[in-house]
Specification:
CATH superfamily of the largest domain: P-loop containing nucleotide triphosphate hydrolases
CATH architecture of the largest domain: 3-Layer(aba) Sandwich
CATH topology of the largest domain: Rossmann fold
CATH class of the largest domain: Alpha Beta
Strand content: 15-25%
Largest sheet: 6 strands, mixed
Number of helices: 6
Structural class: alpha/beta
Number of strands: 8
Shape: globular
Amino acid sequence: MSNEATRDAPRTEDSRFGYAALVGRPNVGKSTLMNRILGQKLSIVTAKPQTTRQQVAGIKTTEKGQVVYIDTPGIHLAAKKALNRYMNRIAQAAFQDVDLVLFLIEAGRWTRQDENVARSLKKVDVPVFLVVNKIDLLPDKRELLTFLDREVRIGRFSEVLLIAAKNGDGVDDLENRVMEELPFSRPFYDEDQFTNRSERFLAAELVREQLMLRLHKEIPYALTVEIESFKREDGLVRIG
């Protein structure tokens, strides 16, 4: 699996390399942003909470350097179920050993879960960028400044970036700022690698995505997909 965005990989010592964690409550657009940055589908996306259950690393290589974006499960305020507690641990583990945290929220909507995530980020020793997503859906853009100042209290974040991950608005600027924040270092991954996950894992995730889109009520949240066979035949991948 290759990524066209990796063709012009950096070869000089002035390139940058580092890790950026995408965090936030469920359904704020973390996986959509990851896919937009990579220019291809890596993280599965549905309207249901608990879609992302594991950390998924997306690797973006350009002439300026290499960024490993860590897509995390949405952080749940009420973690009574074992699965929610597990996903919270996965998400919070992403705060460790990264160079930058991208905290995603929805434009015009600040919830108790958002505040819970914001408070947990106070302990982080790296810059935290507030990424305000879905600005294209905000009816009155003039209300955005009031929302950010009064409800979100943006002064506690290193920087604020406005984006619409679904259509790409502001994403290029976000990528540039992320790259500027990373240390100078040689790339760690091969230039044609776009994730640290196996093809078998990605296939299982795609199957789970389709099941979640088609099933309702409590059934999707209990789903676990296991690939028992993975074969390449005539240029196609056959799974079972």
